[in-house]
Batch of 2 targets.
Target 1
Amino acid sequence: MEEAHPYIPNSAPDVKKEMLEAIGVKSIDDLYKQIPEEIRLKGRLNLPESLTSELELRNHVLSILNKNADPGDYKSFLGGGCWNHYVPAICDEINHRSEFLTAYAGDPYEDNGRFQALFEYESLMGELLDMDVVSVPTFSWGQSAAMSLRMASRITGRREAIVPDVMSRERFLLIKNYCEPSMKIRTVKHDRETGMIDLEDLRNKISGDTAAVYFENPAYLGFIETGGKEISEISHEKGGMVVVGVDPISLGVLSPPGHYGADIVCGELQSLGIHQHFGGGLGGFISSRDDEKIVMEYPLRLFGTTKNSRGEQVFGDVAYERTSFAKREGGKDFVGTMAALWGITAGVYLALMGPKGMNEIGKLIMQRSRYAMKKMGEIPGVTLPFSRSPHFKEFVVNFDRTGKRVKEINRRLLKDKIFGGLDLSEVFPENGQSALFSINETHTYQDIGFLVERLREAVS
Amino acid sequence: MRNFHEARWDEPVIFKLSRKGERGILVPKIEAEIEREVGDVFSGLPDFMVRKTLPALPEISQMRVLKHYLRLSQENLGADLNVDIGQGTCTMKYSPKVNEMFVSNPRAADIHPYQDVSTIQGTLEIIYRLDLMLREISGMDRFSFQPGSGSQAIFAMASIIRSYFMSKGEERDEIITTIFSHPSDAAAPAVKGFKIVTIYPDKNGIPDIEALKAAVSSRTAGLIVANPEDTGIFNPRIKEFTRIVHEAGGLCAYDQANANGLLGIARARESGFDMCFFNLHKTFSTPHGSGGPACGALGVREELIRFLPVPIVEKGENSYYLNYDLPDTIGKVREFHGVFPAVLRAYSWIMALGAEGLKEVAQVAVLNNNYIMNKVLKIRGAGISFPETRERVEQVRYSWSKLTEETGVTSEDIIRRMADFGFHLWTSHHPYIIPQPFTIEPTESYSKDEIDEYVDTLKHIAEEAYRDPELVKNAPYNSVIHKIDRPEDFDDPKKWAITWRAYLKKRGEDHKDTN
């Protein structure tokens, strides 16, 4: 290169020359001798012309990004595993800090801050979940559920898991791909009236091979699974474990799953102060009680605390020898880069919200979504299939009696700058033309009124 | 030597900051109209489902929360502050700030994965364009950005290998890797049910080709290896390796998490691989985020596209769309489309460099590495793995074993002492095949002066080790904390404390100083 690139200090010709001389070689090519000619790239990569000035680069990238609609112009009622909850300014302030954003794998000395922040994340989540052990984040809810089921399999020595037949398709496919072939994933039917797990079917399917029963609260379709106690009893009676996936923003008002029998609790962090990022905001957690048998099966890093002999509070890896970092294929599943920055962020969120904030936001979401359900149910031809069950923030709306397809309705709503509910008609065809609507603290009385009004027009 | 002292705020664990009644942020009040209509929303719930006691989260005002986390951030050295060349294998390069502006833009940050595709054409275009670029850089035919890291990409490759043989009706259950490939190259395929066969190097540090020949059989499903390996040694017979595995009927998958020394120099295709992945958070500059979110961009040859996780982005006549219709897809390895912020940053980084710039990245990374090697080997007590092989690409695994023999000071002692000068140094993955290991990977991002300072500090500490070993053994002194001298607490189930509440239960003596 004739001109030094701003990202490459030693591309400055004089510096490069000085370094080559220090090594005692004539050119950089001399340093590549071990790469045989036959596998060398002939010629130059065929890539677009570079934009080396930051100004041109900025204009170029923004010109593409501007092809996206401006989210500020739209009202979105999409959820299904990624939500537009409010993100407090301080969450962004902290996760933009160079010190956290550009750190990676430092030691508990020069990177004490990262260790403490992640330990505190575990601790804050521990209070929310009422559990004594919480892992450093995984990639996502789905990954956490899959790893939890494999933990249950190793603990029980059994190779089957039972999951609800109505759950996120994305999450189900992930779990299936992750757990097979060493585990078999079976589904249990749901009650057509309530959406909840059909306990009769569960009793029929559960056996001495069942490592765990997995269910979610709130369930994927938004209702609150109130059969948790019975489900746990059924599984425990057969010697199986109970894994519950939870949306943590509900836990200021709903009981943590450990209170109705969960042995391992997993779920999604994105609702706790993290932007959607087209789904890139996902991060998962796994938690349990502090039982050595369970702790030793976690594949993930677990940051713990103690004091050194000077009395300083210090942080470090608990039971590191469990991990694949220590034992390669002899470790528990695998560990590595997942979503630590979102863990720090979720910790900041919980610290800001405090006990009252989590309680208030949970109640607010329930009130607003209940209101939206009520108002949408009043639209002629619109029904709410599982409305007799209590709900948290999402709910299913059926349009069969309007004679309209969800696709059509959403196309119409889009003209009014509304992202309507998530179309379920292809994933769960037995529910007909149904959509999953998501309501949270960001949706005001006016927003809900606007949606209902436009929906009324769209279906008439 | 730099007269350094890291911030030491002695910041209490966050629960100790709690004062009853303080609030960090308020949420909107429910509108009267809604409250009137819905009444008591809890009445439909069984009693046991309603939380009776609020979670025991701390109650802290806003500025104090901010200050707490800012202080913790000051007790951390990211690549932006550190000369982060001591974290070998991780490619701690510069993550340009302009790219952070893009990912914070609401058009990137506040979009939902299920939005109507007409409203996310920009996002799909960036994904598609990065796919095209990585195809050219690797020689593969299609990329998926769904895996959220290198390990998840390895898991996806293992899943594809399994589906491939299922589709052919062949039962193959062994994956071959090498001991100097990343631990996840062994661990992730094991999750997918494969038996792992590990090849060790010959005396020159090159994976033993005779061992490979002995390992392949009708059970061989695939090869998953890095090249260059953690030692920085490039296996020059890699094409023969892939040929041997192909002849045995297996597939070849390339761990290119770190491809920093090879951009524009050598590609996966010419080495005979069927698949590869790049860690966008390593080679392609996206920040490591204290350990994610990240992206393991997974590339495959034409005949394996049908196995990729869904959806993939396609370009239609006038617009981009999502294609879920891959006949033999492994399904999902992560929900939605992976970590879009990483894709956006990587795209921008490549655009800032172009073909010439990428090659310059590789060449300067290799120049820096060789420059450092030359200097490190002059340090008393420092040595190199496989000294017969001096050709190294972008990193080197070194050893302090001579220094340890002569002084009793270990690699871990030196690492702690480096913190006293504002630096980080890392040993190696386990097991420690090379005794008293340390691994340096300079990337292209640090100036000669910075590199000189780093290596001079290593030299200074080595001299300290010979002069005053206790000084090094008891380090650090100028870091955030002093030596963790009770590491056994982390392995004892009676003492380990993975949350603050567990700590208070188990280590009651500390309970009294909390409110």
Note: The longest strand of chain B covers residues 220-226.
Target 2
Amino acid sequence: MDFSNRKTADSRSHGASAPGGVSCGCETAAPAGTSHGCETAAPAGTSCGCETVAPASASCGCGQKLPGPAPEAGLVLAMATVPMEPWENIYEPAVALRQGTIFPGLDKPFYVTGGGGLV
Amino acid sequence: MSERAKLLKEIQEVGFTMDDLLLYLDTHPLDQDALKAFAQARERRYQLTREYSGRFEPLTLCQVCPDTNNKTGTFTKYPGQKHFTWSDGPLPWDNQGGV
């Protein structure tokens, strides 16, 4: 997902008004991973002057740092919950070595290893 | 597959089971089922490596025993002589481990 063209809805305080009274909202910190909209020309042919696309958590040139740390481009933050693994009857050693795990519950069809469903 | 290769493969398989149980037991040190499985795998691997070093070359330095190692005289330069059996067996770069 590309956020580079997303303009934040948050355009509260406008100090640096662009010509024509239109502001790009440059002084408003944008959430990590989103653009604050500086790269988008303001309506009616006006510009805020911030022509550079701001990478996440870097400065766009407005003198304001975007909040960080930011995830890789295109990724969003999330919270994960991983349950404790319960015991289960394990594979025989020969099967386990072939499948890469002793636990049937963890024997997933991963691409890289070819998956190798039980034969 | 030779008897030697079959035995070696079985040792690798049960060794893998021990390794995976190790990871599980790191986070479940009180799991009695896992402890039982680990004890079984450990005993099995111990017996297999003992059998292996008796018939073929020792796999660890602790198993080096010229009187009991390599009864089949496989991959040795000194058949029939009492010798340092650590040097028996194919060298890794000879790529004959599975032979």
Note: DSSP finds two helices and no strands in chain B.
